[in-house]
Amino acid sequence: MPKRPDPNKGNNPLRQVAVLSGIAIEMGVIIYLAARGGMWLDDHYGMEKRLFTAGCTILGVALSLWVVLRQIRRFNP
Predict the structure, then answer these.
(1) How far apart are CA 34 and CA 58, in angstroms?
(2) What is the DSSP letter of 48?
(3) Can you give the pTM of this predicted structure?
(4) Can you give the pLDDT at residue 17?
(5) What is the DSSP letter of 12?
(6) Residue 48: exposed, middle, or buried by beta-carbon count in 10 A (0-12, 13-18, 19+)?
(7) Based on the number of CB atoms within 10 Å of its own CB, is 13 exposed (0-12), middle (13-18) or buried (19 or more)?
């Protein structure tokens, strides 16, 4: 009788897809929230050049990359 793969192990393809999809969604949410926060700051302080939006978006991209790299190290199938 062939052995069934253990669903708790990391080599389950469906689990891998779910984890990677979650990482992508988390990255998008972080960048989106950072950009919206920058837009709010620009509107709140009356900035014409949208400097807070640019800065917060860049900060959001850096933060999301850090989170993704940390999760991929932990994932490592």
Answers:
(1) 8
(2) S
(3) 0.79
(4) 87
(5) -
(6) exposed
(7) exposed
